[in-house]
Amino acid sequence: MADRQDHSGMAALSICEALLLAIKDRELLPEHEIVGVLHDAAAVHETAVGNNDEKDMHQAAAVLINKIIASGYRVRQ
């Protein structure tokens, strides 16, 4: 069963996705800069330290962010 943290993460991801798409649609930042933000976010998770559970969580976050980049930074299709 999903816990509160799962729901919070899903909500945060949706909000961030909407913000990035709005920034792109309104041409406030070029696409390469938005992708750069996502690469930076993935890098933070890839280099995070902690116990094994925390490292696994960070690695999973990095994988998800990289999948978002690969899909054209859209979580929803």
Order of helices and strands: HHH
The total of beta strands comes to 0
Q: What overall form do the CA principal axes indicate?
A: globular
Q: Domains counted in the coordinates: how many?
A: 1
Mean pLDDT: 87
* Helical percentage: over 70%
Structural class: mainly alpha
Organism: Ruegeria conchae
Protein name: HD domain-containing protein
Describe the protein.
The chain is an all-alpha fold and 77 residues long. It has one domain. It is 74% helix and 0% strand. The mean pLDDT is 87.
State the main characteristics.
single chain, 77 residues, mainly alpha
SSE topology sketch:
Elements: H1 4-25, H2 31-46, H3 52-70
Helix pairs in contact: 2-3
Short description:
This is HD domain-containing protein. By secondary structure, the chain is mostly helical.
